[in-house]
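Cross-posted from the bioinformatics board.
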Amino acid sequence: MTTYHQVLVGAAPGDAITNMALQTRTGLRRLGPSEIFARFIEPASASQVGALGDLPVGRPRDILIYHSSFGDPEVTRALLRRPERLVLVYHNITPAEFFTDTDPAFAAGLEWGRYELSLLKDRVVLAIADSRFNADELIRLGYTGVRIMAIGVRPRRLADSSNDPETELTLDEIVGVPFVLNISQLLPHKCQHVLLQAVHILQSVHRVELGLVLVGQARSATYERALNQLARSLRLRHIWLAGRQSDSSLATIYRRARVFGSASRHEGLGIPPLEAMAFGLPAVVRDAGATAETVGRGALVLPAASGPLMFAEALLAAHEDDRLRSSLIDSGFQRVSEFSAARSTRSLAEIIEAAGLAS
Amino acid sequence: MPDIDIDEIVSSFQRRITDRRLAGDYPVGLELQLESEFAGMLRTIDRHEIDTDQLAKYVQSVVVAAHDMHLDDSNDSRIPGGASAHRVVSRVVRRQTNPLAESIRDLGISVTDALWEIRRLIEAQRSADERQLLDAVSGVLDRLAVLDHLVTIVTELEQRMAVLESERSGQ
């Protein structure tokens, strides 16, 4: 029986790519045996993801699905030695230049990831990108027949999650006012500092009591410390750097938020703005990478060069202008429906079948 | 799709920013100032700090390795009479290697002590840096307090001047 195993570089609970792989596994198991293997596994994911070294030896008719988002030479070597047919799912690799100064080791991993794509090109029988932006990158590297498909992305996935009482309490105690929400790993190119600066302008110039909640793992300790220092030096009020949160906590925060904001300078897809729109939140985002493509006309897309003043004006309008709010909420819902219909009607298993790779 | 023109809204934000700058709500160079302050914070924090927890793990592994160091005493043999021959050879080899194992254990202990000392020094340096930073911040705050006081005095002087001028013009 043909196997359909998936390979990731790293697996962690709450990680978007790990979630996608878990979502996809259910469909793949309809075709044949399917497990997930990763080189780096956080203990909490160990029950669902096996070590890359334990990936059983396959046969040429088997399929190996590789989720690419970062590079690791061990993974590349393992993939190049395998006999299985390779399906590449490209989630985007952040340009290394964002990390050259602050985290050279991470930057090297990103560089390797891009190099790995060129090494794997001739081994790949099917390439899938989760946005047009990502597909164009693969095409530039010489890939052909790239399919665009946001596999496993379900913007309404948290709609049925119940509220978490502890999170509600924390929001009341720490934030206590309407707030702007950002969901993303804390990294310099995600520019959470611009949101802090914008909220500072709103609190100090406009005298608007709007808070800010930043949800996401601190992938850069330096950046996290700088954000905390910035919040202190600007004497910001109603700020919560919440770290990684469970799904029910996340759903609670989405429901309580007033506006979703993202100043990120690079996104390969950008799922949180879509999830925010699914919760009826007006979204304010920067035009960067695939963000504009993902949110369509459902969000306020600010020019790439926007600074804290532009974000302050946009967040203020999305908070106070009722007509704009209701239009953004409506167009957000519409965009979520469009996105879901256009991107997620077929599963990875169906794509593999349609490409004639299933047997 | 929505009955709003997002491009027009974004343009209106730009116009508002210009108006607020003219009105003095947004001081000239505010964005540049915010950006350069944050860049300064990043530069100060980003010192490629050593992870002392990781260092502690290395120390622990050296301790364990030094402690676990022992010779294999197994003298089993499948050859008839081989076990006694192995015992003899083992005794001779042990006589040579026991001092070596002792030396390596001693080395392990010295390496452990040195690594602990390095860790202690790093943490002492870090705490000294923080103290210096706090001292510097407190100095700046003192100077700001003086400035604040001066502003109050100037404001009072301006008010007195205004009163004097109005009295003079009334005469």
